[in-house]
UniProtKB/TrEMBL annotation:
<dbReference type="GO" id="GO:0046872">
    <property type="term" value="F:metal ion binding"/>
</dbReference>
<keyword id="KW-0378">Hydrolase</keyword>
<protein>
    <recommendedName>
        <fullName>ribonuclease H</fullName>
        <ecNumber>3.1.26.4</ecNumber>
    </recommendedName>
</protein>
<dbReference type="InterPro" id="IPR002156">
    <property type="entry name" value="RNaseH_domain"/>
</dbReference>
<dbReference type="InterPro" id="IPR012337">
    <property type="entry name" value="RNaseH-like_sf"/>
</dbReference>
<keyword id="KW-0540">Nuclease</keyword>
<dbReference type="InterPro" id="IPR036397">
    <property type="entry name" value="RNaseH_sf"/>
</dbReference>
<feature type="domain" description="RNase H type-1">
    <location>
        <begin position="1"/>
        <end position="158"/>
    </location>
</feature>
<keyword id="KW-0479">Metal-binding</keyword>
<dbReference type="GO" id="GO:0003676">
    <property type="term" value="F:nucleic acid binding"/>
</dbReference>
<comment type="similarity">
    <text>Belongs to the RNase H family.</text>
</comment>
<dbReference type="InterPro" id="IPR050092">
    <property type="entry name" value="RNase_H"/>
</dbReference>
<dbReference type="GO" id="GO:0004523">
    <property type="term" value="F:RNA-DNA hybrid ribonuclease activity"/>
</dbReference>
<dbReference type="Pfam" id="PF00075">
    <property type="entry name" value="RNase_H"/>
</dbReference>
<keyword id="KW-0255">Endonuclease</keyword>
<dbReference type="GO" id="GO:0043137">
    <property type="term" value="P:DNA replication, removal of RNA primer"/>
</dbReference>
Length: 160
């Protein structure tokens, strides 16, 4: 049996990278019947939130939710998880660059330590765990296809 999950993610930041910045991440699980369940997470104040940190945090949140769902199931189905993001950075991190960075000791082609290494490594570890029970696919979508997750991020930041 295959258990399918589709998760839409988004991250946002106000005051990107500056002192006093606020950020949030959201993940929206869309069920087969069209209904959805959503979660948000406020970013910590340190390191200062950025849009990129928010987008990777959203990926981590989605991976955590998928693993949590797998642990709740009575059976051990093959998991098929698709994570959607409107961030080309987040999708690139999870599909291409992460493998090169890991091989290069977390340095980029210019020899600089990669930004957001802590979150990217966390996402990589969660991805590895999910790969043990199924497949994870990362898909870029245009912003207008991600309105619910975007709205949830903004609501979270409004409440901070």
């Amino acid at each position: 049996m295959v258990y399918i999950m589709e998760i839409y993610t988004d991250g946002g930041c106000r005051g990107n990278g500056r002192p006093g910045a606020i950020g949030a991440a959201a993940a929206v699980v869309v069920k087969r019947n069209g209904k959805s369940t959503s979660w948000t997470r406020s970013l910590p104040r340190y390191p200062p939130p950025t849009n990129q940190r928010a987008e990777i945090t959203a990926i981590c949140l989605a991976l955590e939710l998928a693993l949590e769902k797998f642990d709740q199931l009575d059976t051990n189905p093959q998991f098929d998880v698709t994570i959607y993001s409107d961030s080309k950075y987040a999708i690139g991190c999870m599909t291409t660059w992460i493998y090169k960075w890991a091989r290069n000791g977390w340095f980029n082609a210019a020899g600089n330590q990669i930004a957001n290494r802590d979150l990217i490594q966390e996402a990589s570890d969660l991805d590895d765990r999910l790969d043990e029970v199924g497949n994870v696919k990362y898909v870029w979508i245009p912003r207008e296809k991600n309105e619910v997750a975007d709205r949830l991020c903004n609501e979270d930041m409004d409440d901070q």
